[in-house]
Amino acid sequence: MTVTHHLRVHRSDEHLPREGQLARRIAEIAADPVGVDDDVTEMIINRVIDNAAVAAASLRRAPVSAARQQALDHAVSVGGSGATVFGCALERRTSPEWAAWANGVAVRELDYHDTFLAADYSHPGDNIPPILAVAQHVGVDGAALVRGLATGYEIQIDLVRAICLHKHKIDHVAHLGPSAAAGIGTLLGLPVETIYQAVGQALHTTTATRQSRKGEISTWKAHAPAFAGKMAIEAVDRAMRGETSPSPIYEGEDGVIAWMLDGPDASYEVPLPAEGESKRGILDSYTKEHSAEYQAQAWIDLARKLHGEAAFDPADVASIVLHTSHHTHYVIGSGANDPQKYDPTASRETLDHSIPYIFAVALQDGGWHHVDSYTPERAGREDTVALWHKITTAEDAEWTRRYHSEDPNEKAFGGRVVVTLNDGTVIEDEIAVADAHPLGARPFARADYVAKFRLLAEPVLSPEEIDRFLALAERLPELSVDEVRQLSIVALPGVLATAPAPKGLF
């Protein structure tokens, strides 16, 4: 049975025992030796496949190449075997924190993997690169890796359910540092006290502003979660050596809540598993069929539907208004007041956070492509720009309520579209969740994850390599230590040579 943890700020003269601190509760959950349910294990396998798919598709992109080069410029640390780097030969290892960095950037670069949205945003698959890197470095089997990943997903999703970061312009990776540290703690079987210190350090070093997702969005958007994973590994290392962290990190009068979030009078109710309760948070998350911000997924599907109905010619459109949630309106909609969201020369990172652009292209093309839909030529097409600039968003109270609903049967990430044509005709339609969502028209299942991997990996991996990775991933809980160390993807000869090879300090 889920237990709610009451979280509030404590003055320094109010002694808060460690047992009452959120970081301690997280550590206790991570140290709980509870087993992993079969359906959770199956979903973890799906997400390992999903991460590898989107990483494969990004191997030749500049930010991924830069992160990979940084990682490869660091030798394997002396305390283990090192970890693999996506795209590289299996024997080419680096230190685990740098592998987590490189692989984390590869996973996040295309904004194409799993998501969980509640009080805040998250991509819980970001837990996989750091936890897997540590597993390969220290030498654990697949069953231990599954337990660690179950914890990482659980903690991040529980924090996201309760604590809003974006309202205070704090980047959502502040929930990732603690979850990855907790997952590594489970993986290694660390004691509660060690995990507690690691969680505190990981949070302390991963709080940053949301400017990385505002205005002219830079390549750091992909690096931010990788940095959080890297910091989590380093926090665990320090905690294992007996080093301590700021305490209480969440509740202190100069802590995260008091000064970065809702202030000294704030309180939150954080749902956490009870002692002995299975960690099932991953089952409430969902992946992406389309390479765009999650809140765009349903809108792409609705645009695809409208395109297929051929009810109107986009050239005849006078205006399109997307009535949607507060989050969608202010983060990826016209409510953000970011002129870059209407700029044909904007970066890919900006365009995948512009629902006016995404809806225009999907309406014209009847679908979405992770490369073709973002090219400068596609963004600059005259008829697209004309349609794009006719699209706005509007906050709708009912869609905002449904966005925040805790009832999975009514929680929604879409909205209602109103298309007004030049002749005065009005066309309306709506969608609540993406087609690939568990409650959508075509929920993603194992076959869909495998198909996504094959589609994205085919240009850069050999057929034999695709089959090799899938065979390992689908046996994840049974893998030996050596097989866990092979859980990576190796690019075809010459693929990485076509990527930029920037030189830096290292």
Give the low-pLDDT segments.
none
End-to-end C-alpha gap: 49 Å
Number of domains: 2
From the spread of the alpha carbons, the general shape counts as globular
Number of helices: 20
Structural write-up:
- One of its GO terms (molecular function) is 2-methylcitrate dehydratase activity.
- It holds the Pfam family MmgE_PrpD_C.
- Its EC number is 4.2.1.79.
- Monomer.
- InterPro entries: MmgE/PrpD_sf (IPR036148), MmgE/PrpD_sf_1 (IPR042183), MmgE/PrpD_sf_2 (IPR042188), MmgE_PrpD (IPR005656), MmgE_PrpD_C (IPR045337), MmgE_PrpD_N (IPR045336).
- This protein is of the alpha+beta class and 506 residues long.
- The chain has two domains: 3-284, Orthogonal Bundle (2-methylcitrate dehydratase PrpD); 294-431, 60s Ribosomal Protein L30, Chain: A, CATH 3.30.1330.120.
- It is built from 20 helices and eight strands.
- It has a four-stranded mixed beta sheet with strand order 6-5-7-8. A two-stranded antiparallel ribbon has the order 1-4. Strands 2-3 form a two-stranded antiparallel sheet.
- Strand 7 and strand 8 (426-431) form a beta hairpin.
- The chain is globular, with a radius of gyration of 22 Å.
- The relative contact order is 0.16.
- The model has no long low-confidence stretch (mean pLDDT 95).
